[in-house]
Design brief:
It is a multi-pass membrane protein. With 173 residues, the chain is mainly alpha-helical. It contains 7 helices and 2 strands. The longest helix has 26 residues.
Length: 173
């Protein structure tokens, strides 16, 4: 990764966090679905990212969101779990020939069907842990599953929409 793409990626992460904190914080679609757009930053890291760096980035990104949401580590725990599961999930869904060294798991690089099969379970894991911690002892399992499913669908739609509208397709040589 060269310095230009690193700066662009960091800037994208900052923009995603600002959108998450300013616009998506108080948005709950039908009082059920919450959008977790900042998770796109963790999911779009390079396929060959170092696992320790991935865990640290996810933890501190979640902790930063927790500061603005006042949620006492809920986002940090869920984001860290996603970062832990991500390499194993990438290995489980890897194509026959494996991944290229330069591949990033985004919509334009891998295609819509692969991106949905990659990110949907990770968004669901995030949502399920987040709502389980949120409703610990007060809500039933069905309420957690209901919120997790609809938040996952809403977050997936947001992630696909953002990638289609704002990320340009890279030219292949």
């Amino acid at each position: 990764m060269n310095i230009r793409s690193l700066i662009t990626f960091i800037f994208t992460g900052i923009i995603l966090m600002v959108v998450q904190v300013l616009f998506l914080k108080n948005l709950a679609v039908f009082g059920v679905a919450m959008g977790f757009l900042y998770l796109m930053f963790i999911l779009d890291l390079s396929i060959n990212s170092n696992k320790i760096n991935l865990l640290l980035i996810a933890f501190f990104l979640g902790l930063l969101i927790d500061i603005f949401y006042d949620t006492i580590g809920m986002h940090a725990a869920a984001a860290t779990l996603v970062a832990f599961v991500r390499p194993y999930w990438l290995k489980a869904i890897s194509p026959t020939g494996g991944y290229d060294e330069s591949n990033r798991p985004d919509l334009h690089e891998m295609g819509l069907s692969w991106y949905i099969s990659y990110s949907f379970p990770l968004f669901f894991i995030y949502s399920f842990l987040f709502f389980t911690i949120d409703q610990w002892g007060t809500g039933g399992l069905l309420g957690v599953l209901y919120k997790s499913l609809f938040s996952t669908i809403f977050s997936m739609l947001l992630a696909i929409l953002v990638q289609v509208l704002f990320f340009k397709r890279r030219r292949r040589i």
